[in-house]
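In the present case, backbone shapes were mapped to integers, as reproduced here:
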Amino acid sequence: MRIPALLLVLAGAAGAQTITFSDGEFPSWTSSVVWTNGASTGGGTADVGGGNPGASWRVDHSVDTLGGVIVAHRPTDPAGSFDPVVQGPFERVEVSFEANVIDAAVFGSVVAFGVVAWQDGHFFYAKCNYQLVFTGDGWKLVGGDLAGPEFSEDGGGPAFLDFHGGGPITFGFYTSNSTGHAGGVALLHVDNFEATVHVGEGLLGTPYCQPTTANSIGSFSTLLALGSDTAADDDLTLRANCLPPNQFGYFLVSKTQASIPNPGGADGTLCLGGAIGRFNAQVQNSGAEGEFAIVVDTLALPMPSGSQAIQPGETWNFQAWYRDNNPGPTSNFTSATTILFD
């Protein structure tokens, strides 16, 4: 069945609902080149054919010698937007769409696809969970299940998506190409786009300290905090995403923020200062999925001076450190999150 354009579906009770936006006709979409190298260009147009079935969003890339391009695609109709101020804080979004690379006369005959968000005049990218589709593979299902802090900006605006407030958020996708030697072009079609926003109070704090050094899988790792920001609830889970697989790491905590690049020769930036606690009694492995998590005992944070309980009115900052091979043995850091407890 064809997905009609601008279909908005609400489900669930207030504070725990899902909001689904679906579009298979693309009458009100637009494309923007958000990064380019050299004379590389790209864009998208609604196409009455080429879909799976029917209409599609046609994307064309033209990539300069040794160049590259990233193009963001999104709906412009306000009916396709989610407003965290009116509808509640954005917890996570499930995005899916189908992609068919017709021709990619570029490096590896492949196009990279990922999820993008648009808020207050800026694009924010999900720098993990991107996928590759090769020429001649036919229609491929693309997308991901992403939390608010996993969307970050590439300069010129706020570092992170404001999933608690800010302006309305529109979800779309990005396409990317590069060349190894000579220039090239790519032609592709996208169809049956769907974004389901989960609204709730599950995500805690405000992300800060966007990673600047990609890890060995080409991603920028993210820290998520979930649970309750009421100190007496003793309900806090920390999760690190977009990690290289099968690597060890642990979480860090401090009352002080900092920005210390390459501490001890590590990749990335340490975003904590002052007295830093290490959850090294809860060392984790990222496994095949590239993530790990712990439940925090908020009554006994492992600070250098001894166990310390979180008190109402205190602000605490959290980050994760992990090992990597990039290409030799090294380590890196996730983004950080600051939480004011009441």
User: Anything to note?
Assistant: The longest helix spans residues 84-87. The chain has two domains: 7-199, 206-340. The domain at 206-340 is CATH 2.60.40.10 (Immunoglobulin-like).
